[in-house]
Amino acid sequence: MKLANQCLLLFLFGFVLESAFGCKKHCAADYGSQGLPGSSCAEILKQKCDDAKDGIYWIIIGQSKPFPVFCNMEAGGWTLVFKLIAGISGGPVKTWKMPFPTYEYSLAALKTNNDFKHHYKNRIVQNWSAFKPSEARVVLYKGGKEEVVLRFNAANSNNANWFSAANVLESPWQDILSEKKNYFTIGGPCWGTGCRDFHINNVYGNCPRDVGWLSVGDSAECKWENRFPAGVKLIYSKASTHVNYNTFTIVLKTYKNITYISIIFHL
């Protein structure tokens, strides 16, 4: 009888931890809904006793209204904050720096495909310090699956300086830290034809000798960019090192292979 009372108390107070008496966890089934939003995907996953699927959940920051986000629960509770679609007009850094969200309440924008033909950003980008991410991932998706993953230490960072070589924790390119870089930045160089954003580059050689790892933007300055349709281009090295962007056999051949790029956070 004593054990039953202790289990009941744990349930009434909503504890999520396993009872020392062997009682089952009390998992919040509705946590992460619009009526009961969480503070992040990682926190929602914890409240659900690590038993949650990938999908759309609701979170809240401070005193703001709840808003929907896509949560990658199977990877540990990552929160989508930014999504760029290949072939869509509008430079990445322009969307990133806007002082307001774009399509934040559109559930279609949160699907893991490129059917929604607009760039997406939620308020977390502008409320970086309030959200306090510990890590950030830049992911290129192909057919809804992760194709390229860059993981960064985002602790004590802001929405500009987290994307740097000093913060790299995981990369598909083994030389990204050892080789020199003339650009490792969210906002890269711009010309009249557009910009190269989220740009990780080794050297420039007047287009024919341009070497790097990643270029996301709407620039059409060089032939290696012009072979893609107008709009945002997601160009990256398919090798384990940096490459000459003109070596098409080891650089992304067609923008249709990569559907979108997203930035997701973890607490």
UniProtKB/TrEMBL annotation:
Which domain of life, per UniProt?
Eukaryota
What protein name does the entry list? Uncharacterized protein
